[in-house]
Amino acid sequence: MILITGSTGKVGQQVISALQAAKTPFTALARSDASARELTARGVRGVRGDLSDPASMRQALRGVTRLFLLSSGVDPHAAEAPVIGVAREAGVQRIVKLSALGSHADATNSFLRGHARAERLLEDSGLEWTSVRPTFFMQNWLVYNAPAIRAGQPVYSNTGQSRLAWIDTRDIADVVAVALTADEHVGRILDLTGPEALSYTQVAERIGKGLHRTVQHVPVSDRAAYTAMAAGMPAAYAFALTTLNQAVRRGIAETTTDTVELVTGRPARTMDAFLSEHLGEFHG
Ligand SMILES: NC(=O)c1ccc[n+]([C@@H]2O[C@H](COP(=O)([O-])OP(=O)(O)OC[C@H]3O[C@@H](n4cnc5c(N)ncnc54)[C@H](OP(=O)(O)O)[C@@H]3O)[C@@H](O)[C@H]2O)c1
After folding, report:
1. Which residues line ligand 1 (CB under 6 A)?
2. Which domains, from first to last, does the chain contain?
């Protein structure tokens, strides 16, 4: 049996859709009543568990042979290492891990460093593994920037004019579904991007074109970005996001790959297709 973690989030929800479309049986982890209800509403069998509670994971992993592992904190290694250990003991045979493009054991950024360290642990675990390393999600625009755009405000970032090869989470999910069910990607790191690298300014301009009004991106300093983010989230998370954008300015997200097409047999979705599908969510 397959178990999906992160099942109510941006990637996990799409992994569920991809497995449902392929009629592949699976269960999904729910850490709260609200998440369990959300899964039930989608016709998914939820299994209760919390990644930070090894006893609950031991229970959740009973009978599981393949695991999609996604964590969402500032240090993926701290979150995932205990789960990898419990999974091995529980008899899981394969883990498909959600990582991030540009992950590196010596990275200054905690997301990138933590993902690389968790990948290394997985490689050394003796389990079958695949690491799926996407670049930045197109869906971030819906979650983080659409509220400002709807309110007629600019989008601020400390990415400067650097370009990012944004990817649709549905493409990540389609790759994850293949990695969970087929054997040819075992032992591989899959670098996933969309087909075009665009700066925040360029994406904002495209949204503005669709809305027939100006949507502005204002590049800000690291300090301004950190201060603004730290006002609304834990300081460690704000620092990690700020330093991630420093890495963007060093060019970690600007190269495109054809890996989505190599794995799924069809090209990655474009930003233009994504924006035209979701334009209504940017309307004030
Ligand atoms: N955003 C990007 O552009 C980007 C790019 C590359 C890589 N990534 C990586 O993607 C991952 C985040 O994926 P996402 O954006 O899909 O996540 P997300 O939307 O933030 O959702 C997080 C999911 O994980 C679940 N979760 C969080 N903590 C948990 C815990 N302790 N136990 C059980 N479940 C827990 C949440 O469940 P609840 O419903 O209970 O909250 C939710 O389903 C991170 O590892 C990040 O580094 C992100």
Report:
1. 5-12, 29, 31-32, 35, 50-52, 70-72, 76, 98, 100, 111, 134, 136-137, 140
2. 2-134+169-192+255-268 (3.40.50.720)
Which atom of ligand 1 approaches the CA of 51 most closely? Answer: 32
Give the type of residue at 122.
Answer: L
Burial of 23 (0-12, 13-18, 19+ CB in 10 A): exposed
pTM (two decimals) = 0.98
Note the pLDDT tens digit of each residue in 137-168.
Answer: 999 999 999 999 999 999 999 999 999 999 99
Q: What is the pLDDT of residue 284?
A: 80
CB atoms within 10 A of CB 209: 12
- State pLDDT tens for residues 65-91: 999 999 999 999 999 999 999 999 999
